[in-house]
Amino acid sequence: MAAGESFDVYRLPDEHQAIREAVREVCAAKVAPHAAEADETGEFPKASYDALRAADFHAPHIPEEFGGAGADALATAIVIEEVARACASSSLIPAVNKLGTMPLLLAGSAEIKSRYLTPVAAGDAMFSYCLSEPEAGSDAASMTTRAVRDGDHWVLNGVKRWITNAGVSEFYTVFAVTDPSARSRGISAFVVEKSDSGVSFGAPEKKLGIKGSPTREVYLDNVRIPADRMIGAEGTGFATAMKTLDHTRVTIAAQAVGIAQGALDYAKGYVAERRQFGKAVAEFQGIQFMLADMGMKLEAARQLTYAAAGKSERGDADLTYFGAAAKCFASDAAMEITTDAVQLLGGYGYTRDYPVERMMRDAKITQIYEGTNQVQRIVMARQLLADVV
Ligand SMILES: Cc1cc2nc3c(=O)[nH]c(=O)nc-3n(C[C@H](O)[C@H](O)[C@H](O)COP(=O)(O)OP(=O)(O)OC[C@H]3O[C@@H](n4cnc5c(N)ncnc54)[C@H](O)[C@@H]3O)c2cc1C
């Protein structure tokens, strides 16, 4: 290949650049202005939802055949990244719509997909994902929520914990034990509707960050649903849950990248303005080195996230490794970058008058959910050692 001909290799396609610009514009005008308020009040940012829905960014991954925007995994990651740059709580709208619907996309029948994905694409309903329980977090396969067959229905009983957007979402992917003797192979996935008799919600958790995204328990008390609400075959639910996370850890990585970018952008502007010892603090090399490290880690996180998004889109065999690596690396980077952003603002960074302390609190959750970063390291090590142990 002649010199100069390789310029198109390994760069974001123009259409993805255009999506970034479009999301950034919507977020600057209609999402960022509500971010501090969502954090302060702990209320779901309805105005952000409306703005994202109007621009078709609320569930961009849903295929066109169901009325969705049909964004690929990289475009979806960019949407989530850009929303998170403005408001991490709002970024859980597209992220959790993907998390909740992914089991259907991966394993659902044509009928169940069409019935449930269409209203999500239209913005008439949101979808949550119910895997975790009070006693089953990292060890999700030890869940005790039970589904028992009763004629052509299933009856569900149990408690799901930490469910993002619970109460706001109309639909829930619920994982439940259908055969207690088979452990992870005895778990099945179901769609439960908010309006099903026996479904109720706990009080919103009082959290450190992402306060505008409600997190609540979901109680299932003799919830009787038709058998055709099972997603995929009986006993395949846990495998579907894990495959889902392979794809959606990429979206959490994107969320982390966005939060970190928001913090770096704000801190950069601040150090250029703030003067001490007769000059802008940005002129001190100690500050410049911090900024350089922040920018370097951020870009490394972004590149790994986009590479993982490509693997998610193609369904590559090494997605499990890349999804875990991207989520783990990007969330650790976001925690460091947002903490450094607070440092760059000095005492002002420690107050709610400036957005970086919110970003630091919001970044923390990306190291915890969809599997803690210890769990991501277990996943990566298992993949790395697969051919030698
Ligand atoms: C705000 C929020 C939103 C969430 N949203 C959802 C949601 O929408 N749907 C859903 O299903 N879940 C959700 N979760 C749950 C989340 O995925 C779990 O909290 C997470 O998987 C960890 O489980 P746990 O909290 O029970 O921690 P535990 O599993 O009890 O872990 C405690 C500590 O032990 C460590 N640990 C555990 N096992 C090991 C091991 N084998 N080796 C080394 N260290 C280990 C963990 O890393 C952690 O540091 C959410 C959680 C939060 C806080």
Automatic annotation (TrEMBL):
Instruction: Respond yes or no to whether keyword Oxidoreductase is given for this record.
Output: yes
What residues does the Acyl-CoA dehydrogenase/oxidase N-terminal domain cover? Answer: 14-124
Q: Where is the Acyl-CoA oxidase/dehydrogenase middle domain?
A: 129-223
Q: Does the keyword NAD apply?
A: no
Which cofactors does it use?
Answer: FAD
Q: Which PROSITE patterns match?
A: ACYL_COA_DH_1, ACYL_COA_DH_2
Q: Which UniProt keywords apply?
A: FAD, Flavoprotein, Oxidoreductase
Gene3D superfamilies to which the protein is assigned, alphabetical: Acyl-CoA dehydrogenase/oxidase, N-terminal domain, Butyryl-CoA Dehydrogenase, subunit A, domain 2, Butyryl-CoA Dehydrogenase, subunit A, domain 3
Domain Acyl-CoA dehydrogenase/oxidase C-terminal per the UniProt entry, residue ranges: 235-385
Q: Which family does it belong to?
A: Belongs to the acyl-CoA dehydrogenase family.
Q: What is this protein called?
A: Acyl-CoA dehydrogenase family protein
Native source organism of the sequence: Micromonospora parva
